[in-house]
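Researcher: Sit down with what I've pasted below and flag anything odd:
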Amino acid sequence: MKIAVAGGTGVVGSVTVTRLKMAGHEPVVLARATGVDLMTGTGLVERLDGVDAVIDVTSTVTTSARAATEFFTTTTGNLLAAGAEAGVRHHVLLSIVGIDVTPFGYYVGKVAQEKLVAGSSVPSTIVRATQFHEFAEQMVERGSFAGMTFVPGMRSSTVSAREVAAALVEIVGGEPQGYAAEIGGPSTDLMPDLVRRLLRHRGSRRPVLSLRVPGAAGRSMRSGALVPASPGVVGVQTFDAWLEEKS
């Protein structure tokens, strides 16, 4: 199959492209690096020529509900419109566990994206997964100030990006199913603890402070709403094994 990967140069996108090649598929990367601007639709129709299916793993760096909603509805709207014109038979969207009960800015945008995909004429499957192990690195990059790292006090069941990519490749080759079974990691931890383990593994003694996110979003994060109640797929690689692999 000829399968396009929107966001194919990112954390999960790059490993999804690799998994597609391993499975004998022909991946088509949709990214600015390949001449495609998903926000404007430039280059999209040309790249989707002859494509059988699309895997959408696009992401953006924002905590604004308005910005996230604009990004996800615009990029996915362009993907769906071009996909319908090209005769795409299966649109697979990677989403996040618990976003419908966690009114955090980025998640609000993902909920809008899910609704767009579910209501499209293009047959689809929405796959919700937990945060990747790499999320801890992102917290260090984005939350470090004045010699300290501030991390939301959220419960998470981080999972290997490679294992999520493998699930996406398996799903895209099958029949559209609406919502697929959720994907989670092998254990549940507090995100500040994972960030501490990451920093200690690097030899850093930087203090990690748990940030109490206010309101309903914070309560949801702390309650474990971002952890699958009954995941259909449970990852094998632990966070510590991921750390050792990166050494």
Summary: The chain has a mean pLDDT of 95. The chain has one domain: 2-246. The first helix runs from residue 11 to 22.
